[in-house]
Write a structure and sequence with these properties.
The complex is a heterotrimer of chains A (175), B (134) and C (646).
Chain A: H1 2-25, E1 45-46, E2 56-57, E3 67-72, H2 77-91, E4 96-101, H3 105-115, E5 119-125, H4 129-133, E6 141-145, E7 151-156, H5 164-173
Parallel strand pairs in A: 3-4, 4-5
Antiparallel strand pairs in A: 1-2, 3-6, 6-7
Chain B: H1 2-10, H2 34-44, H3 63-77, H4 82-93, H5 108-126
Chain C: H1 2-27, H2 39-62, H3 69-74, H4 81-87, H5 92-113, H6 119-143, H7 167-196, H8 201-233, H9 243-268, H10 272-295, H11 308-332, H12 347-379, H13 387-407, H14 418-424, H15 426-442, H16 448-465, H17 478-503, E1 505-511, E2 516-519, E3 522-533, E4 537-547, E5 554-556, E6 559-563, E7 568-572, E8 574-578, E9 581-587, E10 596-604, H18 608-645
Antiparallel strand pairs in C: 1-10, 2-3, 3-4, 4-5, 4-6, 6-7, 8-9, 9-10
Helix pairs in contact in C: 1-2, 1-6, 2-4, 2-5, 4-7, 5-6, 5-7, 6-7, 6-11, 7-8, 7-10, 8-9, 8-18, 9-10, 9-12, 10-11, 12-13, 13-16, 15-16, 16-17, 17-18
The chains are: A alpha/beta (175), B mainly alpha (134), C alpha+beta (646).
Chain lengths: 175, 134, 646
């Protein structure tokens, strides 16, 4: 018993060492994934940012056809970098719904004219409520939503050209 | 400490600065009812800022943190229970978003280990004392 | 040229550390006994070389020699001299050089001044100190060379981060390091004693000043860091239970426990193994703290300027030293008897209680800090452990600890009667009851933990000065004064923390020019807001007029600074200190047209938190002088007798 007790500090330290070593070997994943993957999209209703006649709501995501929901903003510098990939997706007949965070129509129009407009509709999320409801922690983030309005996949950060294939595959799975 | 300060301050550096748009009045304003404000503060102090990560949303200049403050105040004012709002946020962002680990589940060791250490320590200390019966 | 000289001095210092270790280790064997005395002069030479090297780095920084990579990346020729000077350790390499410099000074001081200790234990201690230093020299020379050149030299440097250009930088890191590194001396003593199996009162008395010294610096470092965060961050908080803060708190907790257990060992020759264990734990907490900050494995708060390779190096040193010492402990400690047993109601009984509770708090902080990491590594689940956990677990334990602290010094050594202790506690109990009554009558509703904190603080404050009652104050030993003041400091600090969470008034208002806001006893008017250009920022400067009753109004200027490169927004809070609290004002950037967002805090008695911290450090200092004085006195007496006898 005494022997065991005497080695206990050493064993405790060894386990600390293991934790530290694994922390060093696997760089901490600092992204905050959404808890909505696998669940229905939250109820929301946003006015259309460019066209008031085109509001975006939970219903517009459950139309029987898988879609992409892109959380972005015209003031977000990295969002410029993912524009080509989104245009590529749009050219493959993928419907992309945008949610613009803290944005203004004039700034958004300028952004779209410079980087292309892949969006079928853009909702105006002026106070981030819908972003929070989606469990999104920043811009840009991209969700794949199936025809019943269930979130199937979340992509955090810029959609790079080589992510397009992954997202296409996820869309296919969501059929 | 310095590094910490530095980092905390660096996080205010949105490489993304959102322009001024219509926001909730309550992002940086208190609720008129002091009791509701107290409840909201108590909750907000335990919600982790998802942008800056190191701080609670009450100590962050990030826009999303400000919007979360506004949202929490509004929902408290509408009569929602703080713990329900916490549960809803955990549903959206995972347990990570709450600085208050839940009793039970994966956080159990947090509560068990100090108790175990107390028992072990008391046992070890007992060996140091003279027996009463002499 | 100076850089090369510094680099060479560092290499030679490393060689000296190796020599110190080798001579010390050989000196312990029977065959090479004659080498025993030679480790000490080597330790002194090592110190001189390291100081020389550090001096070279300071000169290079003061002269803004941009051909040195470290200067080019961290300094700028236009900086005020203070920040050039302090900038020497405002970066990874420089701060590690400061680390080994303090380490070498510690080792040399042991070599020069430690006379009470048995010569074999001293030799083993110096060998251990040499081994620790050797690892850090290797770390510096192989993976963090501060003297590396850059060719071609840039015209000017990238500058020190503006946020570090604060007098706090000149002060805070060195004090914390002295505390961290000072614990290495206690560690080396413990290893030395384990090697020679010589654990007893003499050893404890030799080790005590080192623990006290390191502990004083840790106390100052943590107190200063807390105040720095308080005024710099602009949200009125003074402790965030952030991993880096916890990393500085853990060695302090271990050192505080050690400080009390070493007293039991010195006075009653008991708790031998436990004291050795705590010495190892205290230094391991210092090293873990260094590792956590440098490696950046905890949360994104520390995600800048980290290098996994460096983290790996520190981790290897950690494994070598701490793992080695713990293995040595397990193998050797069986041969060390734990010493005298004692009565539960006695001074030593209360000190065991103190050690038990401090260890529990240490466990809580350690688990709370590292558990999320362990959980994510094993299951991938991400959780956060923050203030609610620490306050609800460590908070109550601290309260119980403080109550024990009130009773402990009023107990006699060896044995005491519960009844008599209770009698001595009558007045403090009265103070406690009085505080409770006053709070119940006037304070209004406050939370249970702050309420308990205030009430206990009142009782503990009264109890902590009780050891001075009925004593001739001029003949009271200095270390008793030290204990009294340090314990009083704990009560004062606790009162400040409780008052802050119980009574703080907060107002968040969108202010128009000319608008007035009431906060606590003050009414504050926003007079005007101007744009103030700074060297590398532009500030929104608010002129606010503060009135209180019939007092003369005064003006304060909170600022919100926007830095351009890198882009960031910082708050310069305007803090006004009154005898009964602080008025804390912060202005933000307006986000809508409703007005300027201003945060008002009235924090009654918040300053007590740091005043208490200063008291604690001051108490430690008095105690240190008292002990050193008395030990020197007894040595002198010993020598005097020898002279008389011959």
């Amino acid at each position: 018993m005494r022997r065991v007790l005497l080695w206990a500090p050493f064993v405790f330290f060894a386990s600390l060492f293991a934790v530290f070593a694994s922390g060093l070997l696997n760089p901490v994943d600092r992204s905050v994934p959404s808890g909505l993957v696998g669940r229905s999209v939250p109820a929301f209703e946003l006015p259309g940012m460019l066209d008031p006649a085109q509001p975006v709501s939970a219903a517009s995501l459950a139309t029987g056809k898988p879609k992409i929901l892109n959380v972005f903003a015209s003031w977000c510098v990295p969002c410029v970098q993912e524009a080509p990939a989104l245009m590529q997706l749009q050219s493959r007949d993928v419907e992309i719904i945008g949610i613009a965070i803290h944005d203004r129509p004039d700034a958004l129009r300028k952004f779209l004219s410079e980087n292309g407009n892949p969006y079928a509709a853009i909702g105006d999320d002026a106070n981030s409520r819908t972003q929070i409801a989606f469990g999104s922690a920043g811009v840009p983030e991209t969700f794949v939503v199936d025809g019943k309005g269930v979130v199937r996949y979340q992509h955090i950060g810029i959609v790079k050209p080589n992510d397009v294939a992954i997202i296409m595959a996820k869309l296919k799975e969501a059929q | 400490m310095i590094r910490n300060l530095l980092a905390l301050l660096l996080m205010f550096s949105p490489l993304l600065v959102a322009p001024v748009t219509a926001q909730s009045v309550y992002n940086d304003r208190q609720l008129p009812d002091p009791e509701q404000e107290r409840q909201a503060m108590a909750l907000m102090e335990t919600i982790r800022c998802v942008v800056c990560q190191g701080q609670a949303i009450t100590g962050s200049n990030a826009d999303l943190a400000a919007d979360m403050r506004g949202m929490i105040r509004e929902r408290i004012a509408a009569g929602e229970k703080p713990e329900d709002i916490r549960a809803w946020l955990i549903q959206n962002y995972g347990e990570w978003v709450s600085f208050k680990p839940e009793m039970g589940g994966s956080s159990t060791p947090l509560w068990i280990i100090p108790l175990f250490a107390l028992a072990l320590g008391a046992f070890l200390a007992r060996g140091r004392f003279k027996r009463k019966a002499r | 040229m100076i850089a090369e000289a510094g680099h060479a001095a560092l290499w030679f210092a490393g060689a000296m550390a190796l020599l110190q270790f080798a001579l010390g280790a050989l000196g312990l064997t029977d065959r090479y006994q004659s080498l025993r005395g030679s480790a000490a002069p080597v330790a002194v030479v090592q110190m001189v070389l390291t100081c020389l090297s550090f001096l070279c780095l300071i000169i290079v920084f003061m002269r803004s020699d941009m051909s040195v990579l470290l200067v080019a990346t961290n300094s700028h020729s236009d900086k005020p001299w203070l920040y050039k000077f302090a900038g020497t350790w405002g970066n990874h390499e420089g701060s590690m050089l400061l680390w080994v410099t303090i380490l070498a000074i510690g080792g040399a001081t042991v070599a020069l001044f430690e006379r009470a200790l048995d010569v074999r234990t001293k030799t083993a201690t110096l060998a251990a100190q040499g081994a620790i230093a050797l690892g850090f020299y290797a770390f510096l020379l192989f993976s963090s060379n501060p003297f590396a050149r850059i060719d071609p030299a840039p015209a000017n440097g990238q500058g020190l981060n503006p946020l570090l250009q604060d007098p706090g930088l000149a002060f805070h890191p060195p004090t914390l390091y002295m505390g961290y590194v000072g614990m290495s001396v206690a560690f080396s003593f413990a290893v030395g004693a384990l090697v020679t199996r010589d654990v007893g009162p003499t050893f404890a008395r030799a080790m005590r000043p080192w623990i006290l010294g390191a502990w004083i610096f840790l106390t100052i470092g943590i107190t200063a860091g807390s105040y720095w965060a308080y005024y710099e961050l602009g949200w009125g908080g003074w402790w965030f239970w952030d991993p880096v803060e916890n990393a500085s708190l853990m060695p302090w907790l271990a050192a505080t426990a050690l400080l009390h257990s070493v007293t039991v060992l010195a006075t009653r020759d008991s708790l031998r193994a436990w004291t050795i264990m705590l010495s190892v734990v205290a230094f391991s907490m210092s090293m873990i703290g260094t590792f956590l900050v440098r490696s950046g494995i905890l949360t994104s708060v520390h995600s800048f300027a980290v290098d996994p390779r460096r983290g790996g190096f520190i981790l290897m040193l950690l494994a070598l030293y701490i793992g080695g010492a713990l293995a040595l402990f397990a193998l050797r400690i069986n041969t060390v008897r734990e010493g005298n047993r004692f009565e539960a109601i006695s001074r030593e009984g209360s000190l065991v209680f103190n050690n038990l509770l401090l260890s529990i708090i240490l466990v809580i902080v350690l688990i709370g800090t590292l558990y999320p990491l362990a959980l994510e590594a094993t299951t991938g689940t991400k959780i956060s452990v923050g203030a609610p956990y620490f306050n609800s677990t460590a908070g109550p334990v601290t309260l119980v600890l403080l109550i024990g602290m009130a009773a402990g010094p009023l107990m006699r050594w060896r044995f005491d009667q519960a009844k008599k202790v209770a009698e001595r506690l009558a007045l403090p109990a009265l103070a406690l009851a009085l505080a409770a009554l006053l709070l119940a009558a006037f304070a209004g509703p406050i939370g249970i933990l702050p309420l308990l904190g205030l009430v206990v603080a009142a009782g503990v404050a009264a109890a902590s000065i009780a050891p001075l009652w009925k004593r001739n104050l001029r003949r009271t030993p200095l270390f008793t004064w030290g204990m009294v003041i340090a314990h009083l400091g704990c009560a004062v600090s606790m009162a400040g923390m409780a008052a802050d969470s119980a009574f703080t008034k907060e107002a968040l208002v969108a202010m128009q020019i000319g608008q007035t806001q009431q906060i606590g006893p003050y009414s504050v008017t926003l007079n005007k807001v101007t744009e103030e250009p700074g060297p590398n920022w532009s500030a929104l400067d608010a002129e606010m007029i503060v009135r209180k009753g019939d007092d003369a109004p005064f003006t304060v200027h909170p600022q919100s600074r926007t830095f351009t490169d890198p882009p960031m927004e910082t708050n310069e809070s305007a803090i006004t200190t009154a005898w009964n609290g602080q008025l804390y004002l912060v202005i933000g950037i307006p986000k809508d047209n409703a007005g300027f967002p201003v945060r008002f805090y009235w924090k009654p008695f918040v300053t007590l938190i740091w005043i208490g911290g200063i008291f604690i450090a001051l108490g430690g200092l008095l105690s240190l002088f008292g002990r050193v004085n008395r030990d020197l006195f007894s040595i002198r007496r010993l020598f005097g007798k020898k002279v008389a006898a011959s």
